[in-house]
Design a protein that fits this description.
The chain is α/β, with parallel strands linked by helices and 313 residues long. The chain has 8 helices and 14 strands. Bound molecules: zinc ion. Keywords: Hydrolase, Metal-binding, Zinc.
């Protein structure tokens, strides 16, 4: 009995201590200026040239993407099943500070046989990766667009947002939200190995510090300090999820990350479902993004895995 109890304790400790999303090293970095929602520049345009690139078409379980138990989803008759989605990455060119990328699309290795993919077979089948239809890889894109990438922002560390990381030159700065690398979830027991392999073991993660002078969390980080790019702290989908409010030459744009995966989710203000860690905190963060969007009538919204057609508003 005693031995069984000891063994059980070891297993329990193992589960509790080994389920961070990644074992990569991370450091907390202070960048830009922390501001409140009332301080956000109200202009409709800015200096950043933003490009959205479709890396792949894909499909995954609707119950993960949308909370089907939400009364609005029930009323709309949404059912579980496969939902067509896409994987994106975004390129931001700032005239003074250079090129930054949000999320990473897919690495070139995903053009090869599945056996060579840096994900375990279980993860690949659970994620329905067999249905990926790749449009472009980061390697292919970098060959066409050789301009230096100053930094990569990861909206969060779920695999489908980091799949392309290894195609960027080693040493490129990689930014995440605060506490994202240490995000713990039982599920991570099965994905941590794949996450580490995809990020590359040498990749140091820079966590953006969202704590204000008094130690209270602040929601908006004016990254360049010129009011052109606000990184938004939106915990819930994961511990350190981030979103981006961008003053672009084409107007104000909001990249939500997976705080909202789908067009329907954004237009109805309904959170994701099973893919989210904490639905209540995700809802608070989604409400914050809706409040920001309401300040800009012409804003373009980019949910995590679908695009909203201009006529849908
Ligand atoms: Zn996600």
């Amino acid at each position: 009995m005693k031995i069984q109890r000891i063994i059980f304790s070891f297993i329990a400790i193992g589960i509790l201590t080994s389920c961070a999303v990644t074992s990569n090293r991370s450091v907390l970095v202070n960048k830009g200026t922390l501001v409140g929602i009332q301080d956000i520049n109200s202009s409709d345009k800015g200096p950043i040239v933003l490009k959205k690139i479709v890396a792949a078409d894909w499909a995954t379980e609707r119950a993960g993407l949308i909370n089907l138990k939400d009364p609005k989803a029930v009323a709309a008759g949404l059912q579980s099943g496969k939902e067509p989605i896409q994987i994106y990455f975004y390129v931001m060119d700032h005239p003074k500070f250079g090129r930054y990328v949000v999320d990473t699309g897919l690495a070139d290795v995903f053009r090869k046989d599945k056996k060579e993919w840096p994900v375990s077979g279980i993860v690949a089948s659970q994620m329905n990766l067999g249905e990926l239809k790749i449009h472009t890889t980061i390697k292919e894109w970098l060959q066409k667009e050789p301009k230096k990438v100053e930094g990569i922002f990861l909206t969060h560390l779920h695999l489908d947002h980091i799949f392309g990381t290894q195609d960027f030159p080693a040493g490129t700065s990689v930014y995440t939200g605060q506490n994202e690398p240490g995000d713990t979830r039982f599920l991570h027991l099965f994905v941590q190995g794949s996450t580490d392999k995809i990020l590359g073991s040498d990749t140091l993660l820079s966590e953006l510090n969202f704590l204000g002078k008094e130690g209270a969390p602040i929601k908006f980080l004016d990254f360049f300090g010129d009011q052109s790019l606000y990184v938004v702290s939106v915990p819930g989908h994961t511990e350190g999820s981030i979103a981006f409010l961008i003053k672009s030459t084409n107007g104000v744009q909001l990249i939500t990350g997976d705080t909202c995966h789908t067009s329907w989710g954004w237009l109805n203000n309904v959170t994701p479902g099973g893919f989210t860690k904490d639905l209540e905190r995700n809802k608070v963060s989604l409400d914050l993004l809706q409040a920001v969007a309401a300040k800009f009538p012409k804003i373009q919204i980019h949910p995590g895995h679908q695009s909203i057609s201009p006529s849908a508003k």
